[in-house]
Design brief:
Elements (H helix, E strand, L loop, with lengths): L24 E10 L3 E3 L3 E10 L6 E8 L14 E9 L8 E14 L3 H8 L3 E2 L2 H10 L6 E4 L3 E9 L5 H12 L17 E8 L8 E4 L3 H9 L5 H15 L8 E7 L2 E11 L11
Parallel strand pairs: 4-6, 7-8
Antiparallel strand pairs: 1-3, 1-5, 2-3, 3-4, 5-6, 8-12, 9-10, 10-11, 12-13
Length: 287
């Protein structure tokens, strides 16, 4: 049976509210983002996942947190652009409407969407142009929309700088987790390593008055890429980052779209959680 998509695009001015009943319910989503893992005192490391809800009664963006991917059983692991069903409930500790707490042991992968055309059939309705409007909305209402997909007017540059390493508090969380032995652990726990480099995109959104944005990249792929080329020197790692996050994702024949999310403690601060880069119908000339 063919997938059924909405006949009308979403109203970006609508602020969804969480259900009052904070109990687990079955939901169906398209995974779009796996953010870079962060140290956690309880879980060792946690990952924030963003997705599109495919439930017809409540479509739109959803944030699933916390998830520890390294401890997920093989039958519950999923990839970006998988359609999955799972159990989740509203996260009462996070005022953002999109934030839900998942049950990682209840994930069922239905299928994977291969190729950008299949993926964009779900995403097209949710792509916006104005990052400025999103930030303005967060200033007016801190518990407003906290996830979005933005198509920049112009991507100006990619900044790459050394990662400073974990803060003392983050390192304490890692050390505490590694020193413990879980009930089902079969061997020593491995510590979460900080990546060698951080990166930021600089771009201009489609607002007429935009003075440009500079936002950090917290994409899982940025960390995984550095791990895959860890034997290279610093210059080689930086070149690998630039090859993928600039030369590939921002190539003239790519329609670059940023998945963006804000931070609970700083609702006006948005970061790049991931990048979609389908091919353009008409390549853009880069001088």
């Amino acid at each position: 049976m063919a997938e059924q998509h909405s006949l009308f695009g979403p109203d970006f001015g609508t602020i969804h509210k969480k259900p009052k009943e904070a109990h687990f319910q079955r939901i169906r989503v398209l995974i779009t983002v796996k953010a870079a893992p962060n140290p956690s005192e309880t879980y060792g490391e946690t990952v924030c996942v963003a997705a599109l809800r495919l439930d017809l009664d409540q479509p739109g963006w959803i944030r699933l947190y916390p998830i520890n991917f390294r401890e997920l059983g093989s039958s519950h692991r999923f990839r970006k652009y998988d359609i999955v069903t799972l159990e989740a409930k509203p996260n009462t500790g996070d005022p953002r409407a999109e934030s839900w707490r998942p049950r990682s042991d209840k994930v069922v992968v239905e299928k994977h969407l291969d190729g950008w055309p299949k993926r964009m059939a779900y995403l097209d309705d949710y792509i916006e142009g104005s990052m400025c409007d999103l930030i303005s909305g967060a200033k007016k209402r801190p518990v407003g929309r906290s996830l979005a997909a933005i198509r920049p007017m112009e991507i100006i540059g990619l900044d790459i700088q050394p990662h400073p390493g974990w803060t003392p508090d983050e390192q304490r969380k890692i050390d505490q987790y590694v020193s413990q032995l879980g009930l089902f652990d079969t061997g020593p726990r491995t510590a979460l390593q900080a990546p060698r480099f951080k990166a930021w995109y600089r771009y201009r959104c489609q607002s007429a008055s935009c003075n440009t944005h500079r936002q950090g990249i917290y994409d899982w792929e940025l960390v995984a890429l550095q791990r895959s080329v860890r034997d290279r020197d610093d210059a080689g790692v930086k070149q690998a980052i630039r090859d993928k996050f600039w030369d590939l994702m921002n190539a003239p024949d790519r329609d670059t779209i940023f998945y963006l999310g804000n931070q609970q403690a700083h609702p006006q601060s948005f970061i790049v959680l991931g990048v979609a880069y389908p091919r353009r119908i008409r390549p853009v000339r880069r001088d």
